[in-house]
Write a structure and sequence with these properties.
Two copies of one chain form a homodimer. Chain A is an all-alpha fold and about 160 residues long. The first copy, chain A, has helices at about 1-10, 20-45, 50-70, 70-80, 85-110, 120-135, 135-140, 145-160. Chain A is elongated. The structure holds a DNA duplex (16 and 16 nucleotides).
Chain lengths: ~160, ~160
Amino acid sequence: MRDLGQELGLLGSSLYSHIEGKEQLLVEVIRSGGSMFQDLADEVAASGGSPFERLRRMIEGHVAILAANRDASATFLNEARFLPDDVRAEVLDMRDRYEASFRLLLAEGAESGDFPGVTDPAISATFVLSVLNALVRWFRPNGRVGADEIASRIYDFVTEGIT
Amino acid sequence: MRDLGQELGLLGSSLYSHIEGKEQLLVEVIRSGGSMFQDLADEVAASGGSPFERLRRMIEGHVAILAANRDASATFLNEARFLPDDVRAEVLDMRDRYEASFRLLLAEGAESGDFPGVTDPAISATFVLSVLNALVRWFRPNGRVGADEIASRIYDFVTEGIT
DNA sequence: CCTACCGATCGGTAGG
DNA sequence: CCTACCGATCGGTAGG
């Protein structure tokens, strides 16, 4: 809290005239991070298109959100365990619903014959999200590869693999 | 340190008759975690076989190490940033060398024509390791899918994708 | 928004 | 291996 205060040019204790506590700040950052991903999933689900098209939009949107909001994304993905029980349950629920939108999309593509490699939609969704979420660990703005190209490479990788 | 002592049936302060400090413990856990992965890479590189065969052995070995040593693996992957500069550099070097063994293997397969989807071995290695390392977050012994089957699914996913 | 604190916790030490 | 601490740090509060 003292560090946070310093970035605002005041003492840590002075923050308490404006906020309830440290935990409240964490909750708000995590919730706003989570809702960005949830909004994307809702948008793509509503927009229609083939499984391939929707998967591409999910990947492009996920990469864009994560590249533009690295701190909030990392907090949403990594810090939920420090939340009190009730809020943690809510955040895990957001994550589950987001994962479910991938699972549904992959299951639909499996049934339509578009994604024959998907025999277990839950595990395929986990793999796709593993690649996407690992970005918080290695993406650097101004890095060698830009966000748009990363999204395109991820799409190619999850659809076709290395062969 | 008090928690650690309690698991051994003594006080936190009593640990200091046996160890140098908290940091030393962390360093040893991380180093032993890292050397398991490094040993795997050395073994596979020495064993020969086609790029496909070596990739399969890398994936099987990685999953096996991670499934059998979840805490040490998670510490190796996540806690390096808390190390003092010199040891942190050493640990990041271990990680770089391990990643390089994937990169080399993928580059070799790209050149041989086995992995035509690999146009940028560095980014492909990152994707493969993203799927493998995410296991520390979701693998549960006694879970629905066993370690051997997970390895097999990961191999299928990285080689063929969802199509 | 600051002054002046509080109680709890942490890694660690001296001395036995 | 314990007793009895130490200094530093943390989230937070009372009162102005």
